[in-house]
Amino acid sequence: xxxxxxxxxxxxxxxxxxxTICTVYCPVAAVNPNYPGPKQAGPDGERLRLxxxxxxxxxxxxxxxxxxxxxxxxxxVKIGDIIQAARIKYSKKQPKFRDYILANTDLxxxxxxxxxxxVNTTLGLKPVKAILDGVMKxxxxxxxxxxxxxxxxxxxKKVAKKQATYPGQVSYFHGCYVNYNNPQLGKDLIKVMNAxxxxxxxxxxxxxxxxxxxxNGLIKQAKKQARTNINxxxxxxxxxxxxxxxxxxTCTFTIRDEYPHLLDIDNADIRENVELATRYIYRLLGQKKxxxxxxxxxxxxxxxxxPCHMEKLGWAYYSIxxxxxxxNIELTILDSQCCxxxxxxxxxxxxxxxxxxxxxxxxxxxxxxxxxxxVTDCETCKWQIEMSTSKQCEHPISILANALE
Amino acid sequence: xxxxxxxxxxxxxxxxxxxxxxQRGLQCVIISSGQSALHFSSGSFxxxxxxxxxxxxxxxxxxxxxxxxxxxxxxxxxxxENKFKALTQQAEDFFKNIKISIQGNHEENHxxxxxxxxxxxxxxxxxxxxxxxxxxxxxxxxxxxxxVTGFLDFYSxxxxxxxxxMGTKCSIHSINLPALExxxxxxxxxxxxxIARIFDKQENIKELVQILKAExxxxxxxxxxxxxxxxxxxxxxxxxxxxxxxxxxxPTLPPSVPGIHTQQKLRSVFQQNGGVYMLGDTVLRAxxxxxRISQIYSFNHGNIPFVGQNFILATGSYFSQGLIAxxxxxxxxxxxxxxxxxxxxxxxxNSDVFESQPYQSFGVKTDNxxxxxREGKIFENLYATGAILEGFNPLKEGCGAGVSILSAMYxxxxxxxx
Lengths: 405, 418
What we know:
The complex is a heterodimer. Chain A contains 21 helices and 8 strands. By secondary structure, chain A is an alpha/beta fold. Among the domains of chain A are: 7-90, Alpha-helical ferredoxin (Fumarate Reductase Iron-sulfur Protein, Chain B, domain 2, Orthogonal Bundle); 293-403, Rossmann fold, CATH 3.40.50. Chain A has a 4-stranded parallel beta sheet, sandwiched between helices. Chain A has a 4-stranded parallel beta sheet with strand order 6-5-7-8, with helices on both faces. In chain A, helix 15 links the parallel strand 3 (244-246) and strand 4 (274-276). In chain A, helix 18 (316-324) packs parallel to helix 21. Chain B is α/β, with parallel strands linked by helices. Chain B has 2 domains: 2-86 and 275-416, FAD/NAD(P)-binding domain; 130-250, 3-Layer(aba) Sandwich (Rossmann fold). Chain B contains 12 helices and 22 strands. In chain B, a hairpin with a 7-residue loop joins strand 15 and strand 16 (306-313). In chain B, helix 4 (81-97) crosses helix 12. The longest helix of chain B is centred in the first third of the chain and has 17 residues, at 81-97. The interface between A and B is medium-sized, with 34 and 36 residues.
């Protein structure tokens, strides 16, 4: 018998010295006493789970996968990965119908966009919200993101030819949010890239990155979609020699880091060529000395919010530096803290309070400022901030596009 | 990414040098792989408690010339007597200037109280923590020690026993609030920081006032574990005002609430002065041009390098992997700098754990301005500061924080004078 086969983990939990620093920075442990905290849920629990699977504790579902524990850990333990991997491996709970609906952004988006005006109105109605709350356990206090009337992909078809004429080319992973909810952000990205004389192409086939499927336990489907995406990204990067950029920090993080760590999908050959648009632009500005033509507009006051996955990527710097280029901008950097929504987590009735409690310090900080917009790279942070504060929230690329001639 | 100074390591040393430089207009970045040792801090900063030969030190300034004789590669020896004196004063002004309130000064060590109730000499102690001027007795006669029921990182009985030896007679009390009941669901999470979150909330502080008022009638003062002041600084002042009695905090076992608060305050001062703080990233390698470091690469930033005029290595020692020991050698992983260590591994440690451990004094070799070297060749723009330095034993000499603070300030001065 090979004794070690049962006590070796793929994750480095044995590096943990139980210092509890992760728990200090866990947004959930701060507000929800039912969550045992990252140290207990991660490395501590892993040691037991390796002995026997029934040490698995369903309260791990309260983890929002923000990875702030990993960012804080002085010993470089992959705490968040350990927790998510344990959920995938041990959780016996079947996803509910609600979870399936929340996680299937492509399906719901495809059904909703052609009927957007009706869907948006209906989802805003009190009786509908009451039914969603009662039957589906989607909290009635939650505001739904609006669907766009027509997808980004269908709009793009009209400009594809012109985009192909630019001397430089780049591929764009637009994500579900741009496609179904906010095609304007995709259009803004195209405007900005065109200003650099670069045309934007879409991937041969793009599926939802799968982040919501992973967090709702729909792993098989997540893997399938991840494979489709990786194949398309490979075609772009390896065959066409076009790097892939994205506007969503969470999609980017999922493709780069969660595919190999949680879904066991190797991306080593293309990982370095998938990045956020703001980082790509930062690179362009450094290399080509391209000068952007800004409007001489009026003063704009913004505050940048660092989404959790942006904190983990370490890339907030690029978005912030890009914003600083805009003439007449007054930029405040908000404290890097979780807004509480965590994708589909905050939509669930059982998480609503936790979600809003987590975000409260951030909301307070925002409300205390005299600003025109909050700026952030994450779409779900945007929903949360717009629902929970009086401020509008925009993507840095949209702010930049607006400032350009 | 272009910066004037690139600082690797975001603990006490990295932050002090970063603040010092950015206050004087230099664009700095700090790259930190996880949170720092301040999270385990006692709440006090030591300057010099013992000479290498074990002699106790009362007045660090008087002992510095003897220290230089005994340990010529000690970071303080590199500073020299005059600079050491000047920098200790500057450091105290530095903390005042950034509004970190401290007790104590460089003229003479005072005494801090350990979580076990014993006294140890030190240089500076964060405000509200109990200190003693002379090491033989405490400034209070009949304190009430109040601990949170079920909080296991603070030992009222041990403290009471130790205090009694110094003539201070304590009474023991416990604190319980409904808000604490929630924490108790996870006994392993009954830790200082989690409790501190509760005592940052006004409604809970008010309840605490009621408990303290009701139970402290026969006490001349109140002692609490350091479980408040994580995100706000006014709690103890508020309690004093409400109860009208002296109130002191004692450090708990880690994590350290005063230490975490200090770390966050230093970080925020650094950022307010325009510094960029990148947490959770690891520097992987460096590129050199002649005897200069030209740029470094990190995990998060891949092929986008950090380009800078000067580099400060503040990565700490073994725990934070600023130094790595394997069976053959002790090395510095980013630049592969020259490291001082004895070749025979059996001489690295002493089998009596309480004795001076030689491995504690191993560290990166530097010249007298703390510039690092490889194969004996000095890098003109790479400085090392803090726990990674050679030639001192922070535990035995009680000088860890002092080395971190003074070397950081000295390096910042060197960079500014270039």
